[in-house]
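Usage

Read records sequentially. Each one opens with the input sequence:
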Amino acid sequence: MGDIHYISPYRTDKNIGGGINLAIRQLNPLPNDWIVHVDQDVCFLRPDSKKQIAEVLEYTDYDVLGCLTNRLSGTHQLYQGEFNDSGDMREHIAIANHCHAGAYGRVLPTSINIAACMMAFRVRTWWDVGGFSENSIRFDSEFTNDVMRRGGKLGIMAGVYVFHLYRMWSDDPVWEVGHLQ
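and closes with the structure output:
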């Protein structure tokens, strides 16, 4: 299977795709290694979340995998398809436990982009598509679009739920992108 490398790069110039590319190049990983990119505003809620991710990655034939979460602009990765504004971590831990118990190891196929809040992909997939777009706030969508154009498969790990702060400060988090530009 290869190693799993968790990364959460940061760039002051807001070139997120470039930061991910640089972090991967600095790792000098092997083609079968996995990269798991995690945004800085994501929190794993179960002590065994990364164990579950490792088990899914060991046997999957998907090229890019995401997770379920509470806050994103796209609903396909939201728990029960709904944006959740609650800041009560106990509520989110209960959701994570429910997902874990009901869907441990299960991957749901999707043809919709995977958000970079937590995205897993093989290094060879990254190489094949030429990495992430640089200086674009759509770096994750562009990456997964490139993977699909090459016939790659996208999936969502239904047993993995993470808390995503996702612009909690904003009255309009979906369209609040000034911090990315």
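Summary fields computed downstream for this record:
- Residues 4-167 form a domain with the Spore Coat Polysaccharide Biosynthesis Protein SpsA; Chain A fold (CATH 3.90.550.10).
- Strands lie at 4-7, 34-38, 42-44, 64-69, 107-110, 118-122, 154-164.
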